[in-house]
Amino acid sequence: MKKMQLLQLCAFFYVTVCSQIEEVAISPPGNEVFVLAGSAFQFTCACVGSCKTPQFSWTRATTDSDGMRTKNSTLKFSNVKIEDAGRYTCDAKCDDSSEKKLKSVKMTVYAFSQPVLVMPSILTENVACDVTCSVDAFDHVDSVHISWYLGSELIKDETQQTLDAANVSDTLTLTALRDYTGKSLTCEVKADMRNNSKQVSYCLDIHYAPKINISASSSGMEEEEVVMSCRSDGNPTPTIEWERKGELWPKNLHRHAQGNVTGRLHRSNQGVYQCVAKNVVSEVKEEMKLEVQYGPANTSIQSFPQQAISYGVQLNLTCLSDMYPKAKQYIWTRIPDMALPKEAMVTNSHLIIDNFQEHHQGIYECRVIHHSGNTERAFYTASVQAEPESKVFTQMVGAVAGSLVSGITGGIVAGFMLAKWLK
């Protein structure tokens, strides 16, 4: 009998010793915990000791309730409010034991408003501007720490003492670069260097002036297809237009979207064209000169004198042709298969013979060679004009009359001399 009682006593002592709670711990640790209003938060209660199945209860000092008993030991706040501030107590007991262990913690709720960014509506490349981050409505906050981030890069750190101020702000001077486009500018506000923070971000869109790139040939042959292309990389995306400087746009050249021009060239298209790119930042123009090559065509030889050629006159021949640009080469020959007279002086489109004689006669050819390789020929027949028959007859009558007169005059003189000798 005594032995059985002894065993029961040992068992009770074992259970009591092995089911003790030595201490209760609350996480996060500390006698006072600061929690940001509006955040999600939880306290976790745990016991130190040999109790395998502890039971927990959370109570708030301002209520008469013993709290709700929970097995997961957590007290959760999905959205902390100012009125949630107070002292909270966790009591823990093991199994059905009436012995409790208690632990209390004070939750202080601090608050400040969501930060507000004030910045220009348009950010322009290489133009400095001020961006202000402000925050107000403080509660249980002695100071705030304001940090600025560009993307993930910290670009400015500033601590502001709030004291009794109703509003705290910090200004960042930002010089915008086009590479910032798409990056977030973030203002982060922490109270008293605590972990919780509030942020406000703005996705940057940097505006910059258009930069024009023209892709087009500066010259082409008449009747060839032409393509002129203009591109620009401005932000916002610029409008692109083609204009003809100082003149109306030619009907045979067609302007398309995206800055393209197509058409078949005509000599009248020659001139200065400009691409105009425009956005809210700037209007930019870039010019190109279009040359239209054509010819040779309508080639001819102009002569001086324009009528009959007489012996001894100067013959001046000029080769004319409709073309652009000027001929690459003029080649003068005399046909068929006769070399130019050695007296002929040739200078490009001009051929001159100072003292025209019978052996200078012939058919003169001018061959025009264009830069494109196109050629065209023109011919001129140079010959001495024969004298009219009436003029020849007059000269013969004059010669006979002259002879008769000479004969009569000679006979009178001879008779006079003979009569004088007979005396």
UniProtKB/TrEMBL annotation:
Its membrane topology: Single-pass type I membrane protein
Leader peptide range in chain numbering: 1-18
SMART domains: IG, IGc2
GO molecular function, one term: cell adhesion molecule binding
Localization (cell): Membrane
One GO cellular component term: plasma membrane
Spans traversing the lipid bilayer: 396-419
Domain of life: Eukaryota
A Pfam family reported for this protein in Swiss-Prot or TrEMBL: Ig_3
Residues of the Ig-like domain: 22-106, 115-201, 210-291, 296-385
Keyword Glycoprotein in annotation: yes
CDD domains (alphabetical): Ig
Biological-process GO terms, alphabetical: cell-cell adhesion
Keywords: Disulfide bond, Glycoprotein, Immunoglobulin domain, Membrane, Signal, Transmembrane, Transmembrane helix
PANTHER family, A to Z: IRREGULAR CHIASM C-ROUGHEST PROTEIN-RELATED (PTHR11640:SF31), NEPHRIN (PTHR11640)
Protein name, as recorded: Ig-like domain-containing protein
Organism the protein comes from: Oncorhynchus mykiss
Gene: LOC110488652
